[in-house]
Amino acid sequence: MEAQELKKASTWSSLLYGAGGGYSKVVLLFLILPSPSLPSSLHLIQVDSVQRWMEDLKLMTDCECMCILQSKPISIEKDEQNELILSSQHSTCDNLQLLLKRAWIISTELTRIAQKLEKNRWQRVHSMTVRVNCHVRSMINEYNTFTRSSSEEMHQLEKLLIDKCSEFTAFTERCLQTEDKEILKSMKSCVNETLTTVAQYFGQLIELVLTQEAQNLLRQIELSGSLYITESAISSLFSLAQEGAHLCRIIAKEGGVVALFKICRQDCFRCLYPQTLRTLASVCCVEEGMHQLEKVDGILCLADILTDTSHSEATHAEAAAVIAQITSPHLTFTQHLSSFLENMEEIVTALVKLCQEASSGEVFLLASAALANITFFDTMACEILLQLNAMKILLAACSDKRIVDTPYSRDQVVTILANMSVLDQCASEIIQGNGVQLLMEMLFEKSSSGNPAEAAACERVQQKSAVTLARLSRDPEVADAAVKLSCIPRLIKLCRSPTERNNSDSVLVACLAALRRLAVMSPDGLEDSDFQQLVKPRLVDSFLLCTNMEESFV
Protein backbone atom coordinates (compact mmCIF):
# COMPACT_ATOMS: atom_id res chain seq x y z
CA MET A 1 0.00 0.00 0.00
CA GLU A 2 1.29 3.48 -0.78
CA ALA A 3 1.82 5.96 2.04
CA GLN A 4 0.77 9.00 0.01
CA GLU A 5 -2.71 7.56 -0.43
CA LEU A 6 -2.81 6.55 3.19
CA LYS A 7 -2.48 10.14 4.26
CA LYS A 8 -5.30 11.42 2.05
CA ALA A 9 -8.23 9.29 3.16
CA SER A 10 -9.00 9.44 6.89
CA THR A 11 -6.54 11.89 6.37
CA TRP A 12 -4.31 9.17 4.91
CA SER A 13 -6.86 6.60 3.88
CA SER A 14 -7.76 7.25 0.25
CA LEU A 15 -4.31 6.19 -1.14
CA LEU A 16 -4.62 2.72 0.15
CA TYR A 17 -5.54 1.44 -2.82
CA GLY A 18 -0.32 9.69 -15.29
CA ALA A 19 -6.44 14.35 -30.13
CA GLY A 20 -5.52 12.81 -32.74
CA GLY A 21 -2.51 12.98 -34.98
CA GLY A 22 1.18 12.47 -34.49
CA TYR A 23 1.54 15.44 -32.18
CA SER A 24 -0.90 14.17 -29.52
CA LYS A 25 1.73 12.27 -27.52
CA VAL A 26 3.88 15.36 -27.23
CA VAL A 27 0.96 17.57 -26.30
CA LEU A 28 -0.15 15.15 -23.62
CA LEU A 29 3.42 14.58 -22.40
CA PHE A 30 3.42 17.44 -19.96
CA LEU A 31 -0.10 16.83 -18.71
CA ILE A 32 1.56 14.45 -16.25
CA LEU A 33 3.20 17.35 -14.45
CA PRO A 34 0.32 18.23 -12.11
CA SER A 35 -1.07 14.72 -11.58
CA PRO A 36 -0.64 12.68 -8.31
CA SER A 37 0.69 8.77 -8.29
CA LEU A 38 -0.80 6.26 -5.80
CA PRO A 39 -3.42 5.68 -8.14
CA SER A 40 -4.46 9.00 -9.39
CA SER A 41 -6.34 11.76 -11.00
CA LEU A 42 -5.33 15.31 -11.85
CA HIS A 43 -4.77 17.34 -8.69
CA LEU A 44 -6.60 20.43 -9.95
CA ILE A 45 -9.68 18.51 -11.01
CA GLN A 46 -10.31 17.18 -7.48
CA VAL A 47 -12.15 20.34 -6.43
CA ASP A 48 -15.62 21.73 -6.83
CA SER A 49 -16.20 23.02 -10.38
CA VAL A 50 -17.19 26.52 -9.25
CA GLN A 51 -14.15 26.77 -6.98
CA ARG A 52 -12.00 25.60 -9.88
CA TRP A 53 -13.51 28.23 -12.18
CA MET A 54 -12.87 30.96 -9.60
CA GLU A 55 -9.22 29.89 -9.32
CA ASP A 56 -8.73 29.79 -13.10
CA LEU A 57 -10.43 33.18 -13.48
CA LYS A 58 -7.58 34.85 -11.62
CA LEU A 59 -5.16 33.53 -14.22
CA MET A 60 -7.23 34.50 -17.24
CA THR A 61 -6.42 37.75 -19.00
CA ASP A 62 -7.81 39.72 -21.88
CA CYS A 63 -6.06 38.32 -24.94
CA GLU A 64 -6.19 41.55 -26.96
CA CYS A 65 -4.63 43.61 -24.18
CA MET A 66 -2.03 40.98 -23.55
CA CYS A 67 -1.05 40.90 -27.22
CA ILE A 68 -0.46 44.64 -27.12
CA LEU A 69 1.39 44.70 -23.82
CA GLN A 70 3.14 41.34 -24.31
CA SER A 71 3.32 41.03 -20.53
CA LYS A 72 5.59 44.08 -20.26
CA PRO A 73 5.26 46.54 -17.37
CA ILE A 74 3.47 49.79 -18.20
CA SER A 75 6.12 51.83 -16.45
CA ILE A 76 9.32 52.29 -18.47
CA GLU A 77 11.46 52.66 -15.36
CA LYS A 78 12.03 49.73 -13.08
CA ASP A 79 10.03 49.95 -9.92
CA GLU A 80 12.20 47.85 -7.65
CA GLN A 81 10.08 48.52 -4.59
CA ASN A 82 6.94 47.23 -6.30
CA GLU A 83 8.82 44.17 -7.55
CA LEU A 84 9.96 43.45 -4.00
CA ILE A 85 6.41 43.73 -2.67
CA LEU A 86 5.09 41.45 -5.40
CA SER A 87 7.72 38.81 -4.85
CA SER A 88 7.29 38.81 -1.08
CA GLN A 89 3.53 38.44 -1.22
CA HIS A 90 3.78 34.72 -1.85
CA SER A 91 6.04 32.02 -0.52
CA THR A 92 8.08 29.78 -2.80
CA CYS A 93 5.38 27.15 -2.42
CA ASP A 94 2.65 29.58 -3.50
CA ASN A 95 4.70 30.70 -6.48
CA LEU A 96 5.26 27.13 -7.60
CA GLN A 97 1.55 26.40 -7.26
CA LEU A 98 0.80 29.44 -9.42
CA LEU A 99 3.35 28.27 -11.98
CA LEU A 100 1.89 24.75 -12.07
CA LYS A 101 -1.64 26.07 -12.46
CA ARG A 102 -0.54 28.28 -15.35
CA ALA A 103 1.31 25.31 -16.88
CA TRP A 104 -1.81 23.17 -16.53
CA ILE A 105 -3.90 25.79 -18.35
CA ILE A 106 -1.35 26.01 -21.18
CA SER A 107 -1.13 22.24 -21.59
CA THR A 108 -4.93 22.01 -21.63
CA GLU A 109 -5.15 24.74 -24.27
CA LEU A 110 -2.55 23.01 -26.44
CA THR A 111 -4.52 19.77 -26.26
CA ARG A 112 -7.71 21.60 -27.23
CA ILE A 113 -5.91 23.24 -30.16
CA ALA A 114 -4.95 19.79 -31.39
CA GLN A 115 -8.58 18.68 -31.18
CA LYS A 116 -9.92 21.75 -33.02
CA LEU A 117 -7.22 21.42 -35.66
CA GLU A 118 -8.39 17.88 -36.44
CA LYS A 119 -11.85 19.31 -37.14
CA ASN A 120 -10.42 22.17 -39.28
CA ARG A 121 -11.97 24.81 -37.07
CA TRP A 122 -9.43 27.46 -37.99
CA GLN A 123 -11.12 30.39 -36.27
CA ARG A 124 -11.07 28.55 -32.95
CA VAL A 125 -7.52 27.34 -33.54
CA HIS A 126 -6.31 30.91 -34.05
CA SER A 127 -8.12 32.39 -31.05
CA MET A 128 -6.82 29.61 -28.81
CA THR A 129 -3.31 30.06 -30.19
CA VAL A 130 -3.46 33.74 -29.27
CA ARG A 131 -4.59 32.76 -25.78
CA VAL A 132 -1.72 30.27 -25.40
CA ASN A 133 0.70 32.98 -26.53
CA CYS A 134 -0.59 35.24 -23.76
CA HIS A 135 -0.44 32.57 -21.09
CA VAL A 136 3.10 31.57 -22.03
CA ARG A 137 4.29 35.17 -21.77
CA SER A 138 2.45 35.64 -18.48
CA MET A 139 3.92 32.44 -17.04
CA ILE A 140 7.46 33.43 -18.00
CA ASN A 141 6.97 36.94 -16.65
CA GLU A 142 5.51 35.65 -13.37
CA TYR A 143 8.33 33.18 -12.89
CA ASN A 144 11.02 35.76 -13.60
CA THR A 145 9.33 38.06 -11.08
CA PHE A 146 9.79 35.71 -8.14
CA THR A 147 13.10 34.12 -9.15
CA ARG A 148 16.41 35.91 -9.36
CA SER A 149 18.63 33.06 -10.49
CA SER A 150 17.51 31.94 -13.93
CA SER A 151 20.22 30.16 -15.88
CA GLU A 152 21.38 31.00 -19.38
CA GLU A 153 19.83 27.76 -20.61
CA MET A 154 16.48 28.84 -19.21
CA HIS A 155 16.67 32.25 -20.87
CA GLN A 156 17.40 30.58 -24.18
CA LEU A 157 14.44 28.22 -23.78
CA GLU A 158 12.17 31.11 -22.83
CA LYS A 159 13.20 32.99 -25.97
CA LEU A 160 12.75 29.92 -28.17
CA LEU A 161 9.29 29.29 -26.73
CA ILE A 162 8.14 32.91 -27.07
CA ASP A 163 9.44 33.12 -30.65
CA LYS A 164 7.80 29.84 -31.59
CA CYS A 165 4.49 30.94 -30.01
CA SER A 166 4.59 34.17 -32.00
CA GLU A 167 5.34 32.20 -35.14
CA PHE A 168 2.48 29.84 -34.33
CA THR A 169 0.04 32.75 -33.88
CA ALA A 170 1.14 34.36 -37.15
CA PHE A 171 0.84 31.04 -38.96
CA THR A 172 -2.74 30.39 -37.80
CA GLU A 173 -3.66 33.96 -38.69
CA ARG A 174 -2.51 33.37 -42.27
CA CYS A 175 -4.66 30.24 -42.36
CA LEU A 176 -7.70 32.42 -41.66
CA GLN A 177 -6.98 34.52 -44.74
CA THR A 178 -7.47 31.70 -47.22
CA GLU A 179 -10.44 29.52 -47.98
CA ASP A 180 -8.71 27.25 -50.49
CA LYS A 181 -9.03 23.73 -49.04
CA GLU A 182 -5.92 22.44 -50.81
CA ILE A 183 -3.79 25.26 -49.46
CA LEU A 184 -5.23 24.76 -45.97
CA LYS A 185 -4.51 21.05 -46.20
CA SER A 186 -0.87 21.71 -47.02
CA MET A 187 -0.63 24.33 -44.27
CA LYS A 188 -2.18 21.97 -41.72
CA SER A 189 0.91 19.76 -41.61
CA CYS A 190 3.06 22.84 -40.93
CA VAL A 191 0.69 23.90 -38.15
CA ASN A 192 0.94 20.39 -36.67
CA GLU A 193 4.71 20.59 -36.75
CA THR A 194 4.72 24.02 -35.11
CA LEU A 195 2.29 22.86 -32.43
CA THR A 196 4.55 19.89 -31.69
CA THR A 197 7.57 22.18 -31.39
CA VAL A 198 5.71 24.56 -29.06
CA ALA A 199 4.72 21.58 -26.90
CA GLN A 200 8.32 20.32 -26.81
CA TYR A 201 9.78 23.71 -25.86
CA PHE A 202 7.07 24.20 -23.24
CA GLY A 203 7.68 20.76 -21.70
CA GLN A 204 11.44 21.36 -21.62
CA LEU A 205 10.99 24.77 -19.99
CA ILE A 206 8.67 23.43 -17.27
CA GLU A 207 11.06 20.54 -16.63
CA LEU A 208 13.97 22.98 -16.28
CA VAL A 209 12.02 25.33 -14.01
CA LEU A 210 10.93 22.54 -11.68
CA THR A 211 14.43 21.08 -11.62
CA GLN A 212 15.88 24.48 -10.71
CA GLU A 213 13.32 24.99 -7.95
CA ALA A 214 14.01 21.53 -6.53
CA GLN A 215 17.75 22.30 -6.59
CA ASN A 216 17.17 25.59 -4.75
CA LEU A 217 15.09 23.91 -2.04
CA LEU A 218 17.59 21.10 -1.57
CA ARG A 219 20.42 23.61 -1.39
CA GLN A 220 18.59 25.36 1.45
CA ILE A 221 18.07 22.05 3.27
CA GLU A 222 21.71 21.02 2.94
CA LEU A 223 23.41 24.35 3.66
CA SER A 224 21.13 26.12 6.10
CA GLY A 225 21.67 25.62 9.81
CA SER A 226 18.49 27.56 10.55
CA LEU A 227 15.58 25.53 11.84
CA TYR A 228 13.07 27.93 10.29
CA ILE A 229 14.65 27.97 6.82
CA THR A 230 15.04 24.18 6.80
CA GLU A 231 11.43 23.66 7.88
CA SER A 232 10.19 26.06 5.20
CA ALA A 233 12.27 24.33 2.50
CA ILE A 234 11.05 20.86 3.52
CA SER A 235 7.45 22.10 3.50
CA SER A 236 7.88 23.47 -0.03
CA LEU A 237 9.55 20.26 -1.15
CA PHE A 238 6.62 18.24 0.23
CA SER A 239 4.14 20.43 -1.66
CA LEU A 240 6.17 19.92 -4.82
CA ALA A 241 6.19 16.14 -4.32
CA GLN A 242 2.39 16.13 -3.98
CA GLU A 243 2.08 17.26 -7.61
CA GLY A 244 2.80 13.78 -8.91
CA ALA A 245 5.32 11.09 -9.78
CA HIS A 246 7.11 13.26 -12.34
CA LEU A 247 7.97 15.83 -9.68
CA CYS A 248 9.08 13.07 -7.31
CA ARG A 249 11.48 11.77 -9.97
CA ILE A 250 12.99 15.23 -10.35
CA ILE A 251 13.44 15.57 -6.58
CA ALA A 252 15.00 12.10 -6.32
CA LYS A 253 17.37 12.70 -9.25
CA GLU A 254 18.54 15.96 -7.66
CA GLY A 255 19.45 14.20 -4.41
CA GLY A 256 16.28 14.83 -2.42
CA VAL A 257 16.27 11.46 -0.64
CA VAL A 258 19.92 11.89 0.40
CA ALA A 259 19.27 15.39 1.79
CA LEU A 260 16.15 14.31 3.70
CA PHE A 261 17.85 11.32 5.33
CA LYS A 262 20.69 13.62 6.32
CA ILE A 263 18.14 15.64 8.30
CA CYS A 264 16.83 12.43 9.92
CA ARG A 265 20.33 11.66 11.20
CA GLN A 266 20.82 14.98 13.01
CA ASP A 267 19.48 15.34 16.55
CA CYS A 268 19.27 19.13 16.22
CA PHE A 269 16.44 18.65 13.68
CA ARG A 270 14.42 16.14 15.75
CA CYS A 271 11.36 18.36 15.73
CA LEU A 272 11.41 18.22 11.90
CA TYR A 273 11.55 14.40 11.69
CA PRO A 274 7.78 13.90 11.14
CA GLN A 275 7.65 16.45 8.33
CA THR A 276 10.86 15.12 6.77
CA LEU A 277 9.67 11.50 6.88
CA ARG A 278 6.33 12.51 5.36
CA THR A 279 8.21 14.08 2.45
CA LEU A 280 10.35 10.97 2.10
CA ALA A 281 7.25 8.80 1.88
CA SER A 282 6.05 10.95 -1.02
CA VAL A 283 9.34 10.93 -2.93
CA CYS A 284 9.88 7.19 -2.48
CA CYS A 285 6.80 6.35 -4.55
CA VAL A 286 9.09 6.33 -7.62
CA GLU A 287 11.91 3.96 -8.52
CA GLU A 288 14.55 6.71 -8.47
CA GLY A 289 13.63 7.50 -4.86
CA MET A 290 13.86 3.83 -3.87
CA HIS A 291 17.32 3.46 -5.39
CA GLN A 292 18.52 6.54 -3.52
CA LEU A 293 17.05 5.19 -0.27
CA GLU A 294 19.00 1.97 -0.69
CA LYS A 295 22.25 3.82 -1.41
CA VAL A 296 22.11 5.91 1.79
CA ASP A 297 21.14 2.96 4.06
CA GLY A 298 17.71 4.46 4.51
CA ILE A 299 16.24 1.19 5.85
CA LEU A 300 18.73 1.16 8.72
CA CYS A 301 17.89 4.79 9.52
CA LEU A 302 14.16 3.99 9.57
CA ALA A 303 14.77 0.97 11.80
CA ASP A 304 16.76 3.13 14.22
CA ILE A 305 13.96 5.71 14.38
CA LEU A 306 11.24 3.08 14.91
CA THR A 307 13.14 1.32 17.70
CA ASP A 308 14.22 4.53 19.48
CA THR A 309 11.68 5.00 22.28
CA SER A 310 12.75 8.61 22.81
CA HIS A 311 11.05 9.64 19.55
CA SER A 312 7.48 10.90 19.55
CA GLU A 313 4.55 8.80 18.35
CA ALA A 314 4.18 11.18 15.39
CA THR A 315 7.76 10.42 14.31
CA HIS A 316 7.19 6.68 14.64
CA ALA A 317 3.95 6.94 12.65
CA GLU A 318 5.62 8.82 9.79
CA ALA A 319 8.48 6.29 9.75
CA ALA A 320 5.83 3.57 9.48
CA ALA A 321 4.34 5.48 6.53
CA VAL A 322 7.70 5.35 4.74
CA ILE A 323 7.91 1.60 5.40
CA ALA A 324 4.38 1.18 4.05
CA GLN A 325 5.35 3.10 0.93
CA ILE A 326 8.55 1.26 0.09
CA THR A 327 7.03 -2.21 0.72
CA SER A 328 3.84 -1.56 -1.24
CA PRO A 329 2.82 -4.70 -3.18
CA HIS A 330 1.69 -2.41 -6.01
CA LEU A 331 5.30 -1.38 -6.70
CA THR A 332 7.39 -3.52 -9.02
CA PHE A 333 10.79 -2.25 -7.95
CA THR A 334 11.10 -3.40 -4.32
CA GLN A 335 13.16 -6.51 -4.99
CA HIS A 336 16.43 -4.61 -4.59
CA LEU A 337 15.69 -3.78 -0.92
CA SER A 338 18.08 -6.44 0.33
CA SER A 339 18.87 -4.47 3.47
CA PHE A 340 15.21 -4.65 4.48
CA LEU A 341 15.48 -8.37 5.24
CA GLU A 342 18.45 -7.68 7.54
CA ASN A 343 16.38 -5.28 9.65
CA MET A 344 12.94 -6.86 9.22
CA GLU A 345 12.62 -8.40 12.68
CA GLU A 346 13.43 -5.10 14.41
CA ILE A 347 11.05 -3.19 12.14
CA VAL A 348 8.17 -5.68 12.55
CA THR A 349 8.60 -5.71 16.32
CA ALA A 350 8.49 -1.91 16.48
CA LEU A 351 5.42 -1.76 14.22
CA VAL A 352 3.51 -4.29 16.34
CA LYS A 353 4.30 -2.21 19.42
CA LEU A 354 3.10 0.91 17.61
CA CYS A 355 -0.19 -0.83 16.76
CA GLN A 356 -0.61 -1.88 20.37
CA GLU A 357 0.09 1.58 21.80
CA ALA A 358 -1.53 3.70 19.06
CA SER A 359 -3.39 6.68 20.47
CA SER A 360 -5.42 7.35 17.31
CA GLY A 361 -6.91 5.64 14.30
CA GLU A 362 -4.46 7.32 11.96
CA VAL A 363 -1.40 6.02 13.81
CA PHE A 364 -2.85 2.49 13.86
CA LEU A 365 -3.68 2.74 10.15
CA LEU A 366 -0.11 3.62 9.20
CA ALA A 367 1.47 0.97 11.41
CA SER A 368 -0.94 -1.79 10.34
CA ALA A 369 -0.57 -0.80 6.68
CA ALA A 370 3.20 -1.21 6.96
CA LEU A 371 2.74 -4.63 8.60
CA ALA A 372 0.23 -5.71 5.95
CA ASN A 373 2.64 -4.79 3.15
CA ILE A 374 5.53 -6.56 4.87
CA THR A 375 3.52 -9.81 5.02
CA PHE A 376 3.37 -9.64 1.22
CA PHE A 377 7.02 -8.65 1.00
CA ASP A 378 8.39 -11.72 2.79
CA THR A 379 6.68 -14.82 4.26
CA MET A 380 9.09 -14.86 7.21
CA ALA A 381 7.25 -11.79 8.50
CA CYS A 382 4.17 -13.94 9.27
CA GLU A 383 6.22 -16.23 11.50
CA ILE A 384 7.68 -13.22 13.32
CA LEU A 385 4.18 -11.81 13.83
CA LEU A 386 2.99 -15.12 15.26
CA GLN A 387 5.88 -15.15 17.75
CA LEU A 388 5.03 -11.57 18.81
CA ASN A 389 1.37 -12.42 19.53
CA ALA A 390 0.41 -9.92 16.83
CA MET A 391 -2.83 -11.79 16.14
CA LYS A 392 -4.05 -11.16 19.69
CA ILE A 393 -3.03 -7.49 19.53
CA LEU A 394 -4.77 -6.87 16.19
CA LEU A 395 -7.97 -8.66 17.21
CA ALA A 396 -8.08 -6.66 20.44
CA ALA A 397 -7.57 -3.41 18.52
CA CYS A 398 -10.56 -4.21 16.28
CA SER A 399 -12.84 -4.17 19.32
CA ASP A 400 -11.79 -0.56 20.03
CA LYS A 401 -13.84 1.60 17.65
CA ARG A 402 -11.68 4.60 18.54
CA ILE A 403 -8.62 2.90 17.02
CA VAL A 404 -10.01 0.74 14.21
CA ASP A 405 -12.57 3.24 13.03
CA THR A 406 -12.66 2.93 9.22
CA PRO A 407 -12.87 0.22 6.52
CA TYR A 408 -9.31 1.18 5.59
CA SER A 409 -7.99 0.07 8.99
CA ARG A 410 -10.06 -3.13 8.91
CA ASP A 411 -8.67 -3.78 5.44
CA GLN A 412 -5.14 -3.75 6.86
CA VAL A 413 -6.03 -6.03 9.75
CA VAL A 414 -7.80 -8.62 7.60
CA THR A 415 -4.91 -8.51 5.09
CA ILE A 416 -2.52 -9.50 7.89
CA LEU A 417 -4.92 -12.21 9.08
CA ALA A 418 -5.30 -13.59 5.55
CA ASN A 419 -1.55 -13.77 5.01
CA MET A 420 -0.95 -15.29 8.45
CA SER A 421 -3.70 -17.87 7.98
CA VAL A 422 -1.41 -20.00 5.79
CA LEU A 423 0.39 -21.01 9.01
CA ASP A 424 -1.11 -24.00 10.83
CA GLN A 425 -0.56 -22.44 14.27
CA CYS A 426 -2.74 -19.49 13.29
CA ALA A 427 -6.04 -21.37 13.78
CA SER A 428 -5.70 -21.69 17.55
CA GLU A 429 -4.83 -18.00 17.84
CA ILE A 430 -7.96 -17.09 15.88
CA ILE A 431 -10.17 -19.25 18.13
CA GLN A 432 -8.68 -17.83 21.33
CA GLY A 433 -9.02 -14.23 20.16
CA ASN A 434 -12.63 -14.65 18.97
CA GLY A 435 -11.36 -14.04 15.46
CA VAL A 436 -14.05 -16.05 13.67
CA GLN A 437 -16.67 -13.66 15.06
CA LEU A 438 -14.65 -10.72 13.70
CA LEU A 439 -14.36 -12.33 10.26
CA MET A 440 -18.11 -12.92 10.25
CA GLU A 441 -18.71 -9.23 11.05
CA MET A 442 -16.36 -8.24 8.22
CA LEU A 443 -18.53 -10.15 5.75
CA PHE A 444 -21.17 -7.48 6.46
CA GLU A 445 -18.81 -4.56 5.73
CA LYS A 446 -20.69 -1.78 3.92
CA SER A 447 -19.79 1.77 2.93
CA SER A 448 -21.77 4.34 4.89
CA SER A 449 -20.80 7.32 2.76
CA GLY A 450 -21.00 5.93 -0.77
CA ASN A 451 -17.48 7.23 -1.39
CA PRO A 452 -15.87 5.12 -4.18
CA ALA A 453 -12.59 4.69 -2.28
CA GLU A 454 -14.44 3.60 0.85
CA ALA A 455 -16.69 1.24 -1.14
CA ALA A 456 -13.57 -0.35 -2.70
CA ALA A 457 -12.06 -0.78 0.78
CA CYS A 458 -15.27 -2.50 1.94
CA GLU A 459 -15.06 -4.90 -1.00
CA ARG A 460 -11.49 -5.77 -0.05
CA VAL A 461 -12.54 -6.39 3.56
CA GLN A 462 -15.32 -8.77 2.43
CA GLN A 463 -13.04 -10.57 -0.02
CA LYS A 464 -10.13 -11.05 2.41
CA SER A 465 -12.35 -12.11 5.29
CA ALA A 466 -13.82 -14.83 3.02
CA VAL A 467 -10.33 -15.86 1.92
CA THR A 468 -9.21 -16.07 5.57
CA LEU A 469 -12.25 -18.18 6.46
CA ALA A 470 -11.54 -20.52 3.54
CA ARG A 471 -7.93 -20.99 4.62
CA LEU A 472 -8.65 -21.41 8.32
CA SER A 473 -11.60 -23.76 7.81
CA ARG A 474 -9.21 -26.60 7.05
CA ASP A 475 -9.10 -26.74 10.86
CA PRO A 476 -12.30 -28.51 12.08
CA GLU A 477 -12.52 -26.30 15.16
CA VAL A 478 -12.52 -23.12 13.10
CA ALA A 479 -15.02 -24.57 10.60
CA ASP A 480 -17.34 -25.61 13.45
CA ALA A 481 -17.17 -22.10 14.96
CA ALA A 482 -17.93 -20.54 11.56
CA VAL A 483 -20.96 -22.77 11.04
CA LYS A 484 -22.30 -21.97 14.52
CA LEU A 485 -21.96 -18.24 13.78
CA SER A 486 -24.11 -18.65 10.63
CA CYS A 487 -21.30 -17.92 8.20
CA ILE A 488 -22.82 -20.26 5.58
CA PRO A 489 -26.08 -18.26 5.11
CA ARG A 490 -24.09 -15.04 4.87
CA LEU A 491 -21.75 -16.49 2.25
CA ILE A 492 -24.74 -17.73 0.23
CA LYS A 493 -26.30 -14.26 0.40
CA LEU A 494 -23.08 -12.67 -0.85
CA CYS A 495 -22.93 -15.16 -3.73
CA ARG A 496 -26.56 -14.75 -4.80
CA SER A 497 -27.02 -11.03 -4.22
CA PRO A 498 -24.72 -8.78 -6.31
CA THR A 499 -25.71 -5.67 -4.32
CA GLU A 500 -24.53 -7.29 -1.08
CA ARG A 501 -21.02 -7.53 -2.53
CA ASN A 502 -21.19 -4.26 -4.48
CA ASN A 503 -21.16 -6.28 -7.73
CA SER A 504 -17.61 -7.38 -6.98
CA ASP A 505 -16.40 -10.52 -8.80
CA SER A 506 -13.42 -10.92 -6.48
CA VAL A 507 -15.74 -11.07 -3.45
CA LEU A 508 -17.89 -13.64 -5.27
CA VAL A 509 -14.93 -15.94 -6.00
CA ALA A 510 -13.69 -15.71 -2.40
CA CYS A 511 -17.16 -16.45 -0.99
CA LEU A 512 -17.63 -19.46 -3.29
CA ALA A 513 -14.25 -20.83 -2.15
CA ALA A 514 -15.10 -20.34 1.53
CA LEU A 515 -18.58 -21.85 1.08
CA ARG A 516 -17.16 -24.96 -0.59
CA ARG A 517 -14.61 -25.42 2.20
CA LEU A 518 -17.30 -25.10 4.90
CA ALA A 519 -19.67 -27.39 2.96
CA VAL A 520 -17.09 -30.16 3.15
CA MET A 521 -16.87 -29.74 6.92
CA SER A 522 -20.63 -29.26 7.46
CA PRO A 523 -22.72 -30.46 4.48
CA ASP A 524 -25.97 -30.28 6.49
CA GLY A 525 -25.75 -26.49 6.60
CA LEU A 526 -26.82 -26.07 2.95
CA GLU A 527 -30.15 -26.52 1.22
CA ASP A 528 -30.14 -28.80 -1.81
CA SER A 529 -30.56 -25.93 -4.31
CA ASP A 530 -27.57 -24.11 -2.82
CA PHE A 531 -25.50 -27.26 -2.93
CA GLN A 532 -26.48 -28.02 -6.55
CA GLN A 533 -25.73 -24.49 -7.77
CA LEU A 534 -22.93 -23.17 -5.55
CA VAL A 535 -20.96 -26.21 -4.40
CA LYS A 536 -21.37 -29.20 -6.70
CA PRO A 537 -20.51 -27.60 -10.10
CA ARG A 538 -17.07 -26.46 -11.11
CA LEU A 539 -16.11 -23.16 -9.51
CA VAL A 540 -16.19 -21.37 -12.85
CA ASP A 541 -19.72 -22.64 -13.55
CA SER A 542 -21.00 -21.46 -10.18
CA PHE A 543 -19.27 -18.13 -10.79
CA LEU A 544 -21.00 -17.70 -14.16
CA LEU A 545 -24.35 -18.65 -12.64
CA CYS A 546 -24.02 -16.02 -9.91
CA THR A 547 -22.76 -13.28 -12.24
CA ASN A 548 -25.67 -13.89 -14.64
CA MET A 549 -28.07 -13.12 -11.81
CA GLU A 550 -27.22 -9.43 -12.10
CA GLU A 551 -27.95 -9.21 -15.83
CA SER A 552 -31.16 -7.61 -17.01
CA PHE A 553 -32.73 -8.40 -20.37
CA VAL A 554 -35.57 -5.87 -20.07
Overview of this structure, please?
This is INSC spindle orientation adaptor protein. Residues 45-90 form the Protein inscuteable homologue LGN-binding domain. One of its GO terms (cellular component) is apical cortex. Keywords: Membrane, Transmembrane, Transmembrane helix. This protein is an all-alpha fold and 554 residues long. 71% of the residues lie in helices and 0% in strands. The chain is flat, with a radius of gyration of 29 Å. The two termini are 41 Å apart. 44% of the residues are buried. Mean pLDDT is 81; it is low at 1-46 and 62-90.
Compact overview of the structure:
With 554 residues, the protein is mostly helical. The protein has 29 helices and no strands.
Number of helices: 29
Shape: flat
Beta-strand segment tally = 0
Helix content: over 70%
The average pLDDT score comes to 81
Terminus-to-terminus distance:
41 Å
The rounded Rg comes to: 29 Å
Task: Give the amount of beta strand, in percent.
Answer: under 5%
Topology:
Elements (H helix, E strand, L loop, with lengths): L2 H4 L17 H6 L19 H11 L3 H7 L10 H9 L3 H27 L3 H25 L5 H25 L4 H43 L3 H15 L3 H9 L2 H8 L9 H11 L3 H9 L2 H10 L5 H14 L11 H20 L3 H17 L2 H8 L2 H9 L8 H14 L5 H7 L2 H8 L9 H21 L3 H9 L2 H10 L8 H17 L6 H8 L3 H10 L6
Organism: Cyanistes caeruleus
GO molecular function, one term: cytoskeletal anchor activity
GO cellular component, one term: apical cortex
